[in-house]
Amino acid sequence: MIKFFRRIRQHLLAENKFSKYLLYAIGEIALVVIGILIALQINTWNDEIKATKVEVKFFANILLDLEKDDENLNFYLHFHTKRIEYLDTLLTYVRNPHKKMGIDKFGQYVEPIFYSINTTSYSTTFESAKSMGTFNNFKEMELLKGLSRYYADFILLENLFSSITRFVENQFEPLMYSLPEGYMTASTGDLVINEEDTQEFYDKIASIKDNREIEYDYERILRTPLLENYIIGDLGRTYNSIGKIKSRQEMLRLLKRNIEQRK
């Protein structure tokens, strides 16, 4: 092809047909420019196809991450809802001193309060794509903004859970440790909700026979204002956590719906 054009150019020059040669040269330049533009357009189309494939895969993986988050949030909601039930029961006995709770029931209702949970966020897909600059070629910018807000908002939930943990460690545990724990049995942990199985722990405690003659004055704990103050403080933090969990669940469902609708 190049030789063909060269022959035409040499022929025109040889015949001293400058005007025709000029038109030919302009045409040749135009053809080259058109060829370059076509090549650039093809490259652009290829890049867009690749970017679309990356974007589709990204949102498919995000949906998987959101499913895992949804499972976690359901567990967090269940955990804190039951915590409120246990705190409510304890407060009922605190405020009704003539109502006898019994040492076994006391143990079963105070034991779950020792437990708190840590948060887990499945944000690897989002953070990895963000750090690699993958978002620069994405079209769904509004969805990305929603995801960014969702993952940034995680710190609020983490702080609330940490607040409960610190409150347990600083207020509840010192109060309860003033009562010997020999009252614990294999069934003391029946109401405990935890991601890991705790029954082996309670079986082990129960397997070691307590030969001491100790009076487990649990009513002293129920009567102290410190317990009531603790229960109310824990209830406040737990209700705050539930509110944040539900808010995050709403954000998650909206994101899932928007991502699924883009298919």
Automatic annotation (TrEMBL):
Keyword annotations: Membrane, Transmembrane, Transmembrane helix
Pfam families, A to Z: DUF6090
InterPro entries the record matches: DUF6090 (IPR045749)
Transmembrane segments: 21-40
Protein name per its UniProtKB record: Uncharacterized protein
Organism per entry: Zeaxanthinibacter enoshimensis
